[in-house]
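Reopening closed ticket. The problem is back. First fold of the pair:
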Amino acid sequence: MLLYLGQELGEDRPMCKGPLVAFVGLGLAGRGDRHPYEAMTQTLRFQLDGMSCASCVARAERVLSAQDGVTSANVNLGTETAEVRFDAPATPAAMAAALAHAGYPPRQRQVVLAVDGMTCAACTGRVERVLRAQPGVAEATANLVTRAATVTLWGEVGAGTLAAAVTRAGFQAAPMAESGGADPKAEEARLWRAAALSAALTLPVFVAEMGGHLVPGFHYFLHGLIAPQSLWLAEFVLVTLVLLWPGARFFRKGIPALLRASPDMNSLVALGAGAAWAYSALVLFAPGLVPPASRAVYFEAAAVIVTLILLGRSLEARARGRAGAAIARLVALQPKSALRLGPDAESEPQEVPIAALMVGDRVRLRPGERVAVDGLVLQGQSSIDESMLSGEALPVAKGPGDALTGGTVNGTGGLVMEVRAVGAATVLSRIIAMVAEAQGGKLPVQALVDRITLWFVPVVMSLAVLTFAVWMVFGPGLAQALVAGVSVLIIACPCAMGLATPVSILVGTGRAAELGVLFRKGEALQRLETAGRVAFDKTGTLTMGKPKVQAVETLQGVDADAILALAAAVERGSEHPLAGAVLDEAARRGLTLPEATGFHAHPGKGAEAVVAGQKVLVGSARLFAPLDPGLAQMCKVAQDKGQGVLLVGRNATAEAAILVADPVKATARATVEALEKLGLQSVMITGDAEATARAVAADLGIKHIHAGIMPAQKAEVVAALGADTVFVGDGLNDAPALAVADVGIAMGTGTDVAIEAGDVVLMRGDPMGVVQAIGLSRAVMRNIRQNLIWAFGYNALLIPVAAGVLVPFGGPQLSPMLGAGAMALSSVFVLGNALRLRRWGR
C-alpha cells in the first residue's frame, strides 16, 4: 500500500514530497569537536599513591615538569596530591602514565551519570565526546540501553560539573546517585501515550490520502463530499498538531543538535517530516511558487513518519525494560524495612527503613521474612532459603554465630541478628553493582561501531542532498526529487547500530546473573569466547575444599567405631586440618567420645593423648613401630588413590588406618567433559603432591597437571600457559593467578580477595558455572554479530533503494512512510533478537 509508483485520481502523483534542502545544509559544516586540550591552559589535580617522603615529592614534580606542555607542577605530601597546569600536547593520560612509571600512580574513581535524551548511536558518541573533553576525565562510556554514562576520572572533578556539561550538549543529565536513573516503565508509558495520540491524529489524514489504495473509487466519493482545498486545510491542521504535540520531541532535540553540527536520529526525523510538511504547506498556501505538475500535498507522509517512529520507540522501551529485568529482580530481593531492637529489653522494637540500619544494630527476623542486611545470628534457631545465592533448594539450618545474607528468606523460626554490613557493603548490593557494571561496559568489538556511527548521520544527510540533486537534474521534477531525498533521511537507522552491542550485553549478563554467573567486567564476555584452555585450582574449585573420612580400615578383631572414637578423642585437642574430618565422621556415626588427657602434638608426625588409661597415638607411620603388612598395603593403595592416611594405635602399635580425602564436587567430571566438547583443554594446578594430583586428575579426566606448585608460582604457570587461558580458583593464594589470566573466574564461595580479582564470579561455587559462562559468552557474541550484520546490512541495502537507484532498472522506490516503518522495525528486530538470550540454557 505504501510502496507505489502508480496513478491516483488519474494524475501523476509522486510518492512523497517536501522541500529537503531547507535544513540539510546545516549538518554538513563539520563535526565541530576539537581536541579537549587544544590551545587552552588546564589545571588538574591528581590524587597520588606511594608518596612517603620529601624525595617522593621532588621526584613526582620532576616527572611532571618533564612532560612537554606542563607549565607548573606542585606536589603536596600531606594531602598526597599533585596540582598541574598544562597546555597541549600534554594530556592527563600521558601525565598519569609517567607518574605510574615513577611509582606514584594516580588514583582513579568512577562517576555514573543518568543521561536522558539519547536515542541513537550518534547520541552516545556525542555524550562520550563531551565528557572526554572535560579536564581530568580518563575515559567515558555512554550506554544507549541503560541510559547512563560511566566516567573514569583522574582528578577531583565533581559529578555535577560533568552532568552540566552533558546537559549543555542537549541532553538531560544528573549524577545517578541523585536521580536514581530513568524509570523504564514511566518512559514506556509516555511513549505509548504519544504514539497513541499521534496515531489518532494521523488516521484521518492517512485514510483521506491513502484510502483509494484500499477501496477503489474512495477518493472520487470523498472529493464529492469535500473540496480538495478544504480537505488539505483539515489535513494541515491535524498534521501540524502531530508535529507540534507528540512529534515535538524530534524537533526539540534534532534541530539544536543540527545547529551544533552534531546531528542525530532526531535530526533526520525532524528534517524528513519537516520537509514533507513544509512542502505541502507551500502547495496549500502559495501554489504559485510550485510548478503545476508538482502541486500535490504530502501531509500524510509527515504524520505517518512521526507515528511509526514513536511506535518503534515505544516497542524499544518495552524491550529495554524486559532486557533490564535481571537487575530489577535482584533489587526486588532487598526488603524495604527491618524490625530494629532497642538497646535494652524494655525498649519497643521499631520498624525502620533498611537505610537507617547501622553496623552493630540488633534486628528481629520474623518467620517468612527476608533478611534485611548481612549479619550474624545472636539468638534463635531457624532454616534459611539461600537459593538466590547458592542455587541450593534445601534451606540451611542457622543458629547463634552463623552468618546471614541480606535478601535470603527466613523459614519458620524467629531469629535475632546483629548487623555486620549495610548499604553497598552487603553481598546483595555488591552483586547488583557487579551486574550493573558489566551491563554498562563496552566491548572491544564496539570500537568499530563507534568509528562508523561518528560519521553516519552526516554521511546520510550528504547522501540525501546528493540524491535530491541527482533527481532534480535527471529526474522528472521537484516532487520526485523530494521523495528520494526524504526517503533517504527517514530510512537510515543509526538506532539499530547503537543498540546492537549494548542490548545483547544487557540481556546476556542479566541471564548469567540468574544462573549465578556474575560478569564483573563486560569485556570478559568477548575474551571468554576465544578461550583455548581452562586452568583449575584443585582445592575448593574441583574438590569440596573440606577433607572427609572415606573409610576406617582396621586389623582383624579391632572395632572400627571404637578405634574412631579413640582417635576423635585425641583429635579434639588438635588444630590439624584432618582433625576436623575425624571429628565430623565420629559425629556422623553418633559416637560418644571418651575423655582425653595429656594431649601432646608431635610436629610433622601427629599427636598423642591418654584415653581410658592408655596412650593413644594418631598420625603418620613415623609415630609407630613397623606396620602390620596388611595395614601397610592398605595405606599404600590409599595413597596411590590420592587419599590421606591417619594411623591410629595404642602403645606404639598401629591398629587402624583412617582414610581421608577431599572429595571432588559432584559436577566436576561433567564440567571437564563439557569443556572438552566445547573444544577447550582442561588443566589442573595444585600445590598437592604429584601422586595425589594425578589420582584426582585421573578421576576427573584431566590430562594436563601441574603439581607441587607453590602459591606464588601459580601466576607464573598461568602466564606460561598462554594468552588464551582462563583460570578458575577460589582461595586467597589464587588472586595473583586470577589477575594474570586472560579471564579470571572466581568461585563465590571463596575469599573476598579472590572474588574481587576475578573477571567473572560463580556465586554458587559449582564448576559447571565455567561451562555456562563460556557458553553464554559465545551466545552473546554470536547475538552481537547477528545484530551488527543486520544493522549495517539494513542501512547498506535500503539507503540505496530509498535513493531510487533501482528505479532506472524498473525497480521500486520506497515511500518515506514505508521507510519510517522499516526504520522503526529495524531497532525492534535488534532488540527482539537480543531478548532471545533470556531463554539461553532453559
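Second fold of the pair, where the issue appears:
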Amino acid sequence: MARTLKVMPESEPTPKAATAAPPVDGERTVRIPVSGMTCAACQARVQRTLQKQPGVVDAGVNLMMHDATVRYLPDATSAEQLVEAIRGTGYGAELPPAEQSAFDEQQARDEAQQEEFVELRRKAIVSGVAGVLAMFAPMALMSVVPMRAMNVVLLVLTIAVMAWAGRHFYTRAWSAFRHHSADMNTLIAVGTGAAFVYSLIATIAPGFFVRRGVAPDVYYEAVIIIIALILTGNAFEARAKRATSAALRALAGLQPPTARVVRGEGANTQELDVPVADVRQGDVVVVRPGERLPTDGEVLSGESAVDESMLTGESAPVAKKSGDRVIGGTINRTGALRYRATTLGADSVLAQIVRLMRDAQGSRAPIQNLADRISGVFVPVVVSIAVATFVVWFVAADLAGAAAPMVKAFAAAVAVLIIACPCAMGLAVPTAVMVATGRGAAAGVLIKGGEALQRAGAVDTVVLDKTGTVTEGRPTVTDVVRATGTSHTDDALLTLVASLESSSEHPLADAIVRHARDRGLALGPAEHFQSVTGRGAVATVAGHEVLVGNESLLAERAIDVAPLRDDASRLAGQARTPVYVAIDGALAGLLAVADPIKATSRDAIATLRGRGIDVVMLTGDTQRTADAVAREAGIGHVIAGVLPEGKVEAIRQLQQQGRVVAMVGDGVNDSAAIAQSDVGIAIGTGTDIAAEAADIVLMRGDLRSVTQAIALSRRTMRTMKQNLFWAFIYNVVGIPVAAGVLYPAFGLLLSPIIASAAMAFSSVSVVANSLRLRRARLA
C-alpha cells in the first residue's frame, strides 16, 4: 500500500551542498595543461598558487590529467596571467589551442602518455643494466683491475646515468628549490646526490676517511640501482595511469575518420568519401551494413538495427527507420541507411560525452582534501626526519663506540629520503575517479565529476518522477467520456482538444495528438495558446475557447467538474490520468490517458529498496492515479498533485529530515527539483535542461542505471579509502622502519636500495587497486 507524503507550504530554496565555491555571475572556466608535476606536493603547490591569484573563484589541479581547471573573473585576471602564475611555481603551462576539439585533445593526451611510458621504460632498462654491471663487475674484476681504477670507472658510469636517465629528478628538484618549494624529486635528488657526493670524496680523497678510521667505500651501484628502480616504478605507473583512461580513449576513437555523403544535383549526384570534419549540416550521409555512423542525424530512408551499446550500455541493437534519430559513433548492423546530418563537431552527442567524461575525470572528490593538506607539508617534514635520523644515529653509534658511525647514520638518512612517497597520496583519489567514470560510461552512466561520484554513495532516498521515469513516457488515450448535455461528439471533442495540444510539448499532449491522427481527424490551428505549467493549457480553436487540464485549473475558472468526478476517480484507480475538457466555459468531457510502467522499473525499485534505500515517487498527477502506479511499481511512498515549485519543496523537506536525496527525472518540470537534490540524475533520453542541471546522466531510460550509479559510487568510495589508507600507512610504517626504529630490537636496518624499490612500487599498487574498478559488477 503506497503511503502519501504531505508537502508543506513553500519556502526559499537552499543551494545544493558542495565543496567547490558557488558559481559567480560573469565567471569563466579555463583548463590549462601543466607539465612537470610528479607528485602530490607538486599538485598542492600549483593549486595553492592559483587559489591565491586575484579574481580566481576556484581552482583544482589534477595530477593524473596533468592540468588545472580554474574558474575566474575576467575583469580581475586573465587566462594568460594564470599561465604565468603556474610558470612562476617552476612548472610548465600553456593554453590549449582554441580550435582544438575534444577528440584532438584526447588524441594528443594519449600520444603524450605513450611517449612518456616509452621514454621511462628505455631509461629504466638502460639504468638497470648499468646498475647490474656496477654491482657485479667490481667483484668479477677485482683481481684484474685495481680498486681505485674501478672506482673511477664506476664514477663515470654513475655520472652518465644521473645525467641521462635521472636528469629530470635533479633539474626538477633544482627548479623547486629556486621557487622555495620541495617535492618528490627533492627527496630523490637529495638522497642519491648525498650518496654520490660521499662516493666521490671516497674516490678522489680516500685518505679523508682513512684518517678517521672509516673505510673509503663507494655507493655508486646504490645510486644507479635506486635511479633504475624508481624509473621502473615510474614506467609501470605511467602504463597503469594510461590504462585508467582506456574508456575515454575508446569513446574518442568511436568517430570514424571519413563519411560517405551525397553531393551534387540531378545527373551529377554522386557519393563521396570526405573527412568527417568536412561534413556540413544537412548533408545526406550513406551508411552501409557493418559501418560506423560518422555523425548525428535523422534517418531519411532505409531500415536497420543500430548497435548503440558503446554509448548507452544497452546490448540489444535498436531498430531505426525513417524519422528516427541516430547517433554518430554507433554501428549500423543490418540494413543500409540514408540520413541527414544534424549536430556536428563539438555539438554532437559523442563529442559532448567525451567532453563530459574528460571534465569529470579532471575533477576532484572532496575526500581528496585530506591528502592535499598532508602533501603540502610532506616533503619538508620528511627532510627534517632524515636530518634527525642522521643526527640520532651518529650520536648513538658514536656513544656506543661503534665503528664508522657516520656510515650507518648516512645510510639510514638516505633510506628515509628515498622511501618517502607523496605520489601515492596524490594518485589515491584521482585514479579511482578516472576509472570509475570510465566504467560508468561503459554502462551508459555519465557521472559529471568526483564530487557527484562521492555524494551518490551516500544517497539513502531516491525520488522518482513518474512520467518517463517510472513509466514509458509514451502514454496513450484509453477513454473519451462526454459530459451529459454536451453537443460535441467524441470525434469533435477529440479534434478540439488535439488541436490545442498540438502546440504543447507535454507527453500527455503528444498522446492525445497521436490518438486523434490515428483516428484520421483533421486538426486545426490553436490561437492564443497559453500553457499553465503543471496544470493544463488554454487556447482558441475554431472559434471555441478550449480549456484542458486538471481539476484545480477548471475550478480556478469556476467550472464545476462534479458531473464527471466519479468517472475521473474510477479511471485514476486504474492508473489512468484523467484530463478534464471545458469548451466555452462549460464542462464538455473527460479524456483518460494511460502510461504503462517500464518493464525494468519494478526490478530496479526492488533492488534499491533491498539495499536500504527509500524510494519516493513524485508527480503532478492525481493522488489516485499516482497510488495505482506506485502499487504496480512497488513504490511505498508517494507525493502527488505537486507543481514544479512543489517538487522543489518536497525535495527540500526530505533533506531537512536529514536524508541524502537523489532526484531522477527527464522533463522540464524536473529540472528545478534535480538541481535542488543532493544528487540530480537525468535520463538522457529526456530534455537537455534536465541533463544540464543533473550530476549524473543516464544514457538509457532504464531505472536499473540508477542502481548501477549508486553501486559504482559505493564501490569507488571503498577503493578511494583503501588507496588513501595504504598510501598513508606505507609512509607511516615505512619512514620509521627506514629510520631504524626496528634496529634496537631486531637488528633490522633498511638498505637504501630496498627503500627505493618499496617507494617505486607504492604508487603502482594504488593505481592497480583503482584499475580493479574496471571489472566491478554493478548489478
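Update: turned out to be a display glitch only; the data is intact. DSSP finds 28 helices and 27 strands in the chain. Confidence is low (pLDDT under 50) at residues 6-15. Please close again.
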